[in-house]
Amino acid sequence: MESRSRLSIICSHLLPDSPSPTSRLSSSITSSASINDAAGDTRNHQLDCVFCRIVRGESPAFKLYEDETCLCILDSSPLSPGHSLIIPKSHFSCLEATPPSVVAAMCSKVPSIGNAIMKANGSDSFNLLVNNGAAAGQVIFHTHIHIIPRKARDCLWTTEVCIVCLLLDCIVEQHSSILRETLDQ
């Protein structure tokens, strides 16, 4: 129930005059993705692409924002509550293949969407992330931008966990030294 409440808050901040968030669960065709007929492989990839299916209304997703160029949806495997993706409605497999005007349109939505997400879930920061290419961790080969809400000391990234562990190790070592000195007296 808490996630539905957060979703309602996010949606009300992004689209205040629109229907409830559950009606935004895409289950019918709402728009069509542009499909390049010039290359059969590209067409097949676009037909199989999960984001293209979402844009065409063939796969469900919680839509937070939509315009003629891009769509913002909740990530189906979030790293934190409110983790969202901004995707172009046209299929581009990587950032290099995405026209600058489309990248600009996607990026121009980040401040308003990011602020609405932070307000909705009480976070104070967010990471903006693009995994571009297989070596960088891109799994879905359709350009997309992650907005990952963050809270202080959430230890989302392993480097943050290591820093916390190092700090704890230092504290334990200091207390151990004090205890040894006290016991030696």
Automatic annotation (TrEMBL):
Residues 50-157 form the HIT domain. GO terms for biological process: purine ribonucleotide metabolic process; sulfur compound metabolic process. It comes from the Eukaryota. The active site is at 144 (tele-amp-histidine intermediate). GO terms for molecular function: adenylylsulfatase activity. InterPro entries: HINT (IPR039384), Histidine_triad_CS (IPR019808), Histidine_triad_HIT (IPR001310), HIT-like (IPR011146), HIT-like_sf (IPR036265). Gene3D superfamilies: HIT-like. A motif (Histidine triad motif) lies at residues 142-146. This is HIT domain-containing protein. It comes from Populus deltoides.
